[in-house]
């Protein structure tokens, strides 16, 4: 075997079964190895941000890393924004970057750049392979690093010559550490906070939002009366009828402060203390103040489900859990707005659906509206690097293996990585993109308003997408995705039903 | 004035008149300042790679820096690939990155990342502003750094709070150093190499390829018989009837070695010694061997036009220059291939056109085919980071102020940054994109063949774009660009004539 084949062989042994790739010349040995060592599904993205975003979506659904295959520094750079989101989501991903032959770097060829400097900000684990013989063990370490709780980005830079050389050494999968159990003291301190009925927020994040964690949180809330709140940007959350339905910690700081004012105590379970998304004059970065009593029950990387289970026991919770009733919303009618769009989706989304939310201002209330829909999995953009929805829903659909994925997609964000639609068509994925077309960067218009700025010509030009308005029906069809336009709630419902009943990808351009 | 207004005021004073922007919340003060301090045209890109590529095209045409306005680390990251190309092209660019408020960074908000680490690999000059009062001088230094020969990327990171604070200090434009004159010794050594008629290659790059440099090179060639060769990836070259027409140094190493075998001597004029694009087993990185006598007449950053002028005197050149005759190619007919596509363009391109070449395998022979076209300016991708053509032709068209730009665009590369078509529509730019649709990453298929790899399922999947084939007519129309398909040479000619006669952007999908 050559080095490239050892990479693929080891990745397969470590449980990797999908590679989102946009290879170039330096990765040709790996492309050949994907054929000669079968076991990994190779999925082409026509832009690297599609590959990394797809790996994020895939990892959120399977909780296992996909591999990405990226071309040198500039190819990797195109994938950074979605790796930033994945890093904030604690999604496990293994990036393989093909590098020039080691002996060629000194010549400073045109595509040469400092890959380590580019990769470090989005990689928890980063290594440059130093020989063909270490490639197998490098990959085994990368996968173990990626899988270490709470989930990490591992990036391996592989010079082309090592891929081509004979590599005698193989490597076995490495043990992956379990999530760290919290101490009895942590549990006791949280239980003490809940003992006297004082208003307490249980702020849930990470795996606390998977169904097992939520059910324990629901039991705790049922007996203590604490409020269940989820972090502002949940990477993955179980939702729907029969599942405890935390409210979302608000995005805008004034609303966050208003919510916190109702509580004297905050317990963090898998969530970080909330910080404002941007720094606003006169608003503190950290919204929880010294006036609050706080306990960190479980930090990211701790075994938060176990911690919540033990906390439920400590507060003498019963089997009764505070769960959402089945209450699909009534179907709205007439001209669409963001809330109506969410109501149409919530009314029609099938049980077991995966909902990807990059709706930005159009989906502010989706989680509340769809709290009583049939049980589903909710995922949203985590790191604020827009352009995640189309790629991540693509990867989620590959992981979902036929189960429906609905991507609620803001138009401005969607324009970043619309190439992902092509991969949906090539792989014939069951993704329905509901494109929220408000022909603007609405969030920027909000922020201008909040800052008291009356937009002049430049501010108007830089925050609107109306001149000309992109025609998403044509864009989707250009990539081979079936598409239709919905001008009102009725037509959105009609098109969504159709899309969910047909195989393959669809895009519905919802005019807001 | 606040800090943001000082930034814009200083940029205007330093000669900046265009800003390619994709702003976010942290850049709102700058967006407002673009209105309150008039003088800079704000152009929206719907993806940051469009902004940086447009700045590259703009800078190549005007030889002055445009400003980009990018949002935090992930927004900047989306622009890295085209900055990599611009850096290799020595294009002057000033990047302004809006950063979180300085006091907010410690909270590690979701969009926080290590911007310096991301920016360093593509920035010659990189600074984080430390107060509102230094913003004006920071901008003046950034512009001077960008303009210093041979042209640089300057990146300034500006915390949001400094933009909002009152800033009393202004700054004057700084002097920009001229290109360094070469020594008399350099000229004498080059002249000595040319003295005895031994076969000599004069390898031209950088400003040697602008018309003044080429005319001097042509005078030298006329009297000494040396061969004029241009670097493989010219950032900008004057071309056409009446202009000396160097051959291009070949991309593939075996052809480069074959060419070099014809020469005993090589003189570098604004070009680096040629290295292979990738490292290939059995081929040296540096193609010029110890068997060649070499002289570095002028390195990038040296005054190569002056050096060539002095060399022409030293070899007693006359006014006679070795220039291309006017010889537009005959119009081809029938089914299209890459060469026919180039011949159609060469036959129709108007005098003074700007030709952007990201045709990759379809335009291998364009420069030879169009050597005798009416005088034009040729530009091509320099750093191998694909996705440059659509953005760079957009920026070039803004700089060209109505003169026609023709972008010869490979399909796989075009998919990287197709969002640039929207900016062409919004700004109603005279850009005609000739999209070379071969439904594949043809260069990868070449490389697989060269490596002796018979493609299996994965290799086929990862190198073809045929299933489904993107429909570029729909994609272009979806962005508001007039589009048509050309199935043969006659229809390409018909559509190209029409596009060149109508205002505004056009895309012609040429089926290869």
What do you see in this structure?
The structure is a homodimer of 512-residue chains. With 512 residues, the first copy, chain A, is α/β, with parallel strands linked by helices. Chain A folds into three domains: 3-164, Thiamin diphosphate (ThDP)-binding fold, Pyr/PP domains (Rossmann fold, 3-Layer(aba) Sandwich); 184-314, Rossmann fold; 338-511, Rossmann fold, CATH 3.40.50.970. Chain A contains 21 helices and 18 strands. Chain A has helices at 3-13, 28-36, 48-62, 72-78, 80-89, 115-119, 135-147, 160-164, 184-193, 211-224, 253-260, 304-314, 338-348, 366-369, 389-400, 411-414, 420-426, 442-450, 457-463, 472-478, 489-501; strands at residues 18-21, 41-44, 66-71, 93-99, 125-128, 153-159, 200-204, 227-230, 237-239, 247-248, 265-269, 293-298, 354-358, 376-380, 405-410, 431-437, 482-486, 506-511. In chain A, strands 9-14-13-15-16-18-17 form a seven-stranded mixed β-sheet, sandwiched between helices. Chain A has a six-stranded parallel β-sheet with strand order 2-1-3-4-6-5, sandwiched between helices. In chain A, helix 10 (211-224) links the parallel strand 7 (200-204) and strand 8 (227-230). Chain A starts with a helix and ends with a strand. The interface between A and B is large, with 96 and 96 residues.
């Amino acid at each position: 075997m050559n080095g490239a084949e050892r990479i693929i062989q080891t990745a397969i042994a470590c449980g990797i079964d999908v590679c989102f790739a946009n290879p170039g010349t330096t990765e040709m040995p790996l492309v050949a190895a994907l054929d000669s060592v079968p076991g990994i599904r190779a999925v082409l993205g026509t832009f690297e941000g599609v590959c990394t975003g797809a790996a994020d979506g895939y990892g959120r659904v399977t909780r296992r890393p996909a591999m990405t295959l990226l071309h040198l520094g500039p190819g990797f750079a195109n994938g950074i924004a979605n790796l930033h989101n994945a890093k904030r989501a604690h999604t496990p991903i293994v990036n393989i970057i093909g590098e020039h032959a080691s002996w060629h770097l000194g010549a400073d060829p045109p595509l040469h750049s400092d890959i380590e400097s580019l990769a470090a900000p989005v990689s928890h684990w980063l290594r440059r392979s130093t020989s063909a013989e270490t490639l197998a063990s490098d990959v085994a370490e990368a996968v173990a690093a990626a899988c270490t709780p709470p989930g990490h980005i591992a990036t391996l830079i592989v010079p082309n010559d090592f891929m081509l050389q004979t590599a005698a050494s193989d490597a076995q999968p490495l043990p992956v550490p379990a999530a760290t159990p919290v101490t009895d003291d942590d549990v006791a301190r949280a239980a003490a906070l809940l003992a006297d009925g004082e208003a307490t927020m249980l702020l849930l994040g990470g795996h606390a939002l998977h169904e097992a964690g939520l059910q324990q949180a629901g039991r705790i809330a049922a007996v203590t009366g604490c409020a269940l709140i989820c972090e502002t940007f949940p990477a993955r959350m179980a939702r729907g009828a029969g599942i405890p339905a935390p409210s979302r910690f608000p995005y805008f700081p004034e609303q966050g402060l208003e919510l916190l004012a109702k509580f004297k105590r905050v317990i963090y379970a898998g969530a970080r203390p909330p910080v404002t998304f941007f720094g606003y004059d006169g608003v503190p970065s950290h919204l929880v103040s010294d006036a609050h009593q706080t306990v960190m029950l479980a930090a990211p990387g701790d075994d938060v489900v176990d911690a919540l289970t033990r906390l439920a026991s400590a507060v003498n919770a019963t089997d009764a859990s505070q769960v959402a009733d089945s209450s699909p919303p009534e179907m709205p009618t007439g001209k669409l707005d963001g809330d109506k769009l969410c109501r149409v989706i919530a009314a029609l989304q099938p049980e077991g659906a995966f909902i990807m939310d990059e709706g930005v201002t159009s989906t502010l209330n989706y989680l509340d509206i769809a709290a009583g829909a049939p049980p589903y999995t909710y995922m949203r953009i985590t790191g604020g690097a827009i352009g995640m929805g189309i790629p991540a829903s693509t990867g989620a659909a590959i992981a979902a293996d036929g189960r429906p994925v609905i991507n609620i997609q803001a138009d401005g964000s969607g324009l970043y990585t619309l190439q992902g639609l092509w991969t949906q068509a090539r792989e014939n994925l069951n993704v329905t993109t509901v494109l929220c077309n408000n022909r603007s960067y609405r969030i920027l218009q909000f922020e201008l308003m909040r800052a008291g700025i009356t937009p002049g010509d430049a501010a108007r030009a830089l925050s609107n997408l109306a001149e000309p308005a992109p025609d998403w029906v044509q864009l989707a069809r250009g990539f081979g995705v079936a598409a239709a336009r919905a001008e009102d709630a009725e037509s959105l419902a009609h098109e969504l039903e159709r899309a969910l009943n047909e195989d393959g990808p669809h895009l519905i351009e919802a005019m807001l």
